[in-house]
Amino acid sequence: MSVEHTLLAVLSIWPSTGYNIKSEFEHKAAGLYWGMSYGSIYPKLKKLEEDGFIYTLEQEEEGRKKKLYELTPEGWEEFENWLKAPPSYPVIKDELLMKMSTWHEDMDYDDLISHLLKRKEQTEDLLEFVKEWPKNGYSYISKLGILTIRFIEMRLETELRWIEESLVILKNDDLPDGQDPYGNTEKLLERRRRAIGEKKENDQ
Amino acid sequence: MSVEHTLLAVLSIWPSTGYNIKSEFEHKAAGLYWGMSYGSIYPKLKKLEEDGFIYTLEQEEEGRKKKLYELTPEGWEEFENWLKAPPSYPVIKDELLMKMSTWHEDMDYDDLISHLLKRKEQTEDLLEFVKEWPKNGYSYISKLGILTIRFIEMRLETELRWIEESLVILKNDDLPDGQDPYGNTEKLLERRRRAIGEKKENDQ
DNA sequence: TTCCGCATGTAATCTGTTACATGATTAC
DNA sequence: GTAATCATGTAACAGATTACATGCGGAA
User: Fold this and answer.
1) Considering only CA atoms, which of B16, B24, B18, B12 is closest in space to residue B40?
2) What is the pLDDT of residues A12-46, one digit of tens each?
3) Residues B52 and B106 both lie in one domain
4) What predicted TM-score, i.e. pTM, was given to this entire model?
């Protein structure tokens, strides 16, 4: 998903300025969607204009100098071709999961528990925002937009359910069995202990 | 989440070569986690070695020249400090959602439906893989790894549920109401029609 | 009159990918 | 013997971020 197509998509909603697009993403990117910096937005807008996909609307003397960009016929065409092209499969890239799955038994679970508690709070906040969003009275959300928001809600609720379950399991030290056909858990701890031991010796 | 820390995390499981790490991610990155290219792995391994976080194990004359990397005491320390640091909140960056929420009523829903059907298939495949993974008899998965896999499963199942629901809604043309306080849906379609109309005129 | 928010823009930098080069070993 | 896989590495490139520069308008 290129920045260019994202910009076309945003401009399809209504004509906007570069600054405007950035603030829009800033707002919703409270965890939703993702950010774009001025350093990529302005040059790309310029490029899109050069390529004939967007043009600047007359700013009707609003005092401030600003460039309101709008799609050209070619811009609409390009945008809709992009819409029709099959979307790529999203990657799950979650630092919490990476940390959790490489956590080891010689490390205090309390730190992991506080990661989970923090995640719980953040997800609750985001869920609250997402639930209010289509009811706030001023944001434009299409019918299909409502469907995607429904997905985000379901996902966040699932995440909260999982966090709750995991916290109970961790606090009761009731972890499920792993799959460890070659006794790697013990090897790992042994490798680590030896390394740490060597370090202590050297430090003395 | 830097590549460096990801490499330390992978090496904490067991000593590996650069090639090895790449294949590992290739395999699981059937959608899970994410990829790394040789162009970033090898230079980073070199850097980590220079920084004293990893070192090369004797390769015990396995014939092939290869570098088996292992964590140093400093490597373990760095890795565990990273584990303890609060993970950043993941961003939802899903091209399907972006396309769906900017889809408009003058575009055929059939294309959107085929995007959803394709996603359904891909997610089913991934779910199947994730369910088999901890039972395949050879992969090492720690107890906490099982918990994270449980999360992925729940998430994928939620996604499938949402896709089913959405397909029914789309096929019955039974979409929920959007939020459109300023009649933007009509404005959008009008802007587009005018642009497309102009193009047709010019083309004649 | 000073500060903050609106608004645009660029240069330096960072990070990562692609594509290629190289060569050994194993499977057919 | 030759194709595929294992294995390491780099140079050129692409993409995006950070940090800075600039300036207007309105509010305190």
Assistant:
1) B18
2) 999 999 999 999 888 765 568 888 999 999 999 99
3) no
4) 0.93
